[in-house]
C-alpha cells in the first residue's frame, strides 16, 4: 500500500500583494502588531509549517501616482518575525529577502539571530530583482542585468552558508571568500541553532530559478496550483535534484494559492466571485490596460469597451513601476484583448478580472480538503502556501473547518511532531557543527540536534 504523503502548508500574511482586499469590512491594519499576532496564532493553531511574509522594498507607482492596490506602511520582515517568535512556539517564520539589494554576511547574521531566538524556526525566501525602480532606494541602483541576478544570488547564498557553517567546535573559523560579486573575510558571530541553518525557499520560475532551487534551496514558493501544471513543474524541478546528490524529499514545492469557502458550492463560488471583483477596482482595471496602451486612459469607462488598438503608444515610457512587466508586443497584446472582449462582450473591468484570475481552492470545506489531499498525493506539489484575501482574519475559517478534515484523511498532523521548521517540513538537518554550551537547556538542545544528525 502506498504511504500517505504529508500535506505541508504555509500561511502568507495578506499585506504586500494584490490579492488583499482592503475595502472589505473585515480588513484590518497591515502594520499593527496585533494583526501579525492574530494571524500567527491562527496559523500555529492550525499547525501550519510556517508564516510567510512578502517583501515590499518600494511603494509601487503608476504614471507617477501610487498604484491603486498598493499600501503605504511596510514594516521590516525580520523585525516583525522576531516579535512573533515571542508569541509562538512552533510556527516557522519565513521572510522574503532580496539577494540583489542586501549583503550576504549581514543577512546571514540576521537570519542566524532569528533562528537562535526562535529555537530553530527561521526561514528565508530568496528572491532577486533586476528592477531599476526598486534599485533607486539603494546605493547600487538597478545596475544588475537579468542574466546576472541569479549568478549573484547563487554566490550570495554560498557566502551565507559558509558563515552559517563556519564553526570548528565552539570556535568560529575564519571565512575567506573570493568571487565575482563578493570578496569577504571574517568570522561568524552567531552560532548555528537547533536546525543547523535557516531553511531557504526560492521563488523563481525561470530555468535559472529552477536550477538554483534544485541545487541549493529547501523549498520553492511556486505558481503552479492546478494539478496538471503542478505535476509538470514537480517532475521538472525534482528531476534536477539527482545531479546535485539530492533526493526528492530534500526539496518541498509549495504553490501560492487563494481560497474561498462556503457552506454550499454555490455560496463558495459567490464568495470567490466577490473576491475577484473586489481585487480589481475600476481604477485598477484602467491602470492594468494603461500599461499596455502606454497612455493615460482615465477618460474611458472601466465598465465600457476597450480603447481601439490604434491608440497604443509603442515606445511610451513605462507607466507601471515596481511591478513585473509581462507584455513585450503591446500592439499585439491590445489587439488580442480587443478581439477577446468583443467575442465575449466583456467590459474593460470584466476582461481584467479574467486576465488576472489565478487558480484558487473554491468549495465547501470538504471539497477544498479533498482538493488539497489529492494535489499532494498525486504529486502536484508537496502542499500549498495559502494566500487569504483579508487581513488579519482571512485564515480563521480555513483553520476551523478545513484542517480537521485533512487530519481525518491522515495526510495532515493532529499535532506538531517537532519543534523546528526543518522538523515541520521533514527536511534533513545539515551537518553543521554546533558549539557546546554551559546552559543546561541549551546543552539539551545541542544533544538532541546531534542525535538527530547521527541518525541520518
From TrEMBL:
It comes from the Bacteria. The keyword Flavoprotein applies. This is LLM class flavin-dependent oxidoreductase. Belongs to the NtaA/SnaA/DszA monooxygenase family. GO terms for molecular function: monooxygenase activity; oxidoreductase activity, acting on paired donors, with incorporation or reduction of molecular oxygen. PANTHER family: ALKANESULFONATE MONOOXYGENASE-RELATED, C2H2 FINGER DOMAIN TRANSCRIPTION FACTOR (EUROFUNG)-RELATED. The keyword NADP does not apply. FMN binds at residues 96, 150, 206. InterPro entries: Diverse_substr_monoxygenases, Luciferase-like_dom, Luciferase-like_sf, NTA_MOA. Residues 24-382 form the Luciferase-like domain. Keywords: Flavoprotein, FMN, Monooxygenase, Oxidoreductase.
